[in-house]
Amino acid sequence: MKRILFLTLALFSAVLVFSQNDSLILNNGNTIVGELKDMDRGVATFETPYSDEDFKIEWDGIKKIYTNTSYLISTSDGTRYNGTIQSVGDNQVKINFDKGGSTDVSFMDIVYLKSVDKGFWNKVNAFVDVGLDLTKANDKMTFSTRMGIDYIAPRWLLGISFNTNITSQKEGPNTNRTDGALSYQYFLPKSFYIPVSINYLKSSEQNLNARWTGLVGAGYYFFHTNRFYWGANLGVSFNNENYAQPDSVPNYFLQKSVEGYIGTELNLFDIGDFSLSTAAKVYPSFSEAGRMRVDFKLDTKYDLPLEFYIKLGGSWNYDNKPVTGGSDMDYVLYTGFGWEWP
Questions:
Q1: Dihedral of CA 272/72/232/77: which sign?
Q2: DSSP string spanning 23-61?
Q3: Cβ distance 84 to 115 under 8 Å?
Q4: Domain assignments of the chain as residue spans, ordered by start
């Protein structure tokens, strides 16, 4: 009797555990059972009870998918859903909404998944990296750090970033550059979104103690796939600038100004362990005749085991009417070693 009861309980537990699992059938016919944690940039993260580390699986290497986990799901046309996923045919899946109802979509039209079953920390992504360059000539040393954290909700994204670059040398002035941003995006239907951000820049090269820039606008993703995404946005920005030598500021150059802006961003991630991201913004001034600023950045990343990576990148800032004593441009080239989570 005890043996029968034990076997019954074991069988019930096995069925219960299995019923809570997700399963994938790969193109080679193999089936894996566990938990599909997320999918981003064409790579799915899958956890199993028999492996110490999560599996990384190319999205186009999956033939069929069945989940009991509920996800935040984004498709290539910008539509966002909450629900589970079930294959219903070749290259077709059914999304069963959490609040009832369903819809069929192409499997490859799914460009983003994030589990919503595990609460706050499952919606967080973070990274930190550091770089150090030493040059014998003039005992020059450059130390750099970059860090950021994002929180992704069903209809919006909140992010914080902070970067520093400090150079010291035996002969010649020391230089420093610090920038950061608090950014928010609200996702609208059909690939539209509303970007809002507060940006900070300090640059000794441009004689700039601090530039605070608030931006609000509207954006659209022209392409959003498992290989890359490309979008553009435009709007208005408000500047509050504080220079190292305020008495030298010409009359035409105000410390507070209003600008328009137009920007674009491109991310490529279907190139093996490499990824590339770049963004540019042009700011024509509304309140200062003839003034124009440009911000540009480019980052490349090579993924290493255990979520480590190597990064190479740079940023460039241009102002055609700089303050007296400041350069019209400032740029930073960056190499670093970092770690991201999850």
A1: positive
A2: EEEETTS-EEEEEEEEEETTEEEEE-TT-SS-EEEEGGG
A3: no
A4: 19-118, 122-341
Q: Which CATH superfamily is domain 122-341 in?
A: monomeric porin ompg (2.40.160.40)
Q: What angle do CA 105, 110, 116 make, to 5 degrees?
A: 105
Residue pair 317/105 in contact by the 8 Å Cβ criterion: no
Backbone angles phi, psi at 232, to 5 degrees: -145, 155
Which of 155, 163, 161 is CA-nearest to residue 125? 161
Query: Would you tell me how many other CB atoms lie within 10 Å of the CB of residue 319?
Result: 23
What digits encode the pLDDT tens for the residues 31-87?
999 989 889 888 898 988 877 778 889 999 999 999 988 888 999 888 888 899 999
CB 269 within 8 A of CB 275: yes
Coil, helix or strand at residue 267: strand
What ranges in the chain are assigned the alpha helix state H?
A: 2-19
DSSP, collapsed to helix, strand or coil, labels residue 100 as coil
CA distance 117 to 72: 10
Question: Residue 125: how many CB atoms within 10 A of its CB?
Answer: 17
Instruction: Give the pLDDT confidence of 232-249 residue by residue, as tens digits.
Output: 999 999 999 887 665 555
Number of Cβ within 10 Å of residue 1's Cβ equals 5
**pTM reported for the whole predicted model:** 0.79
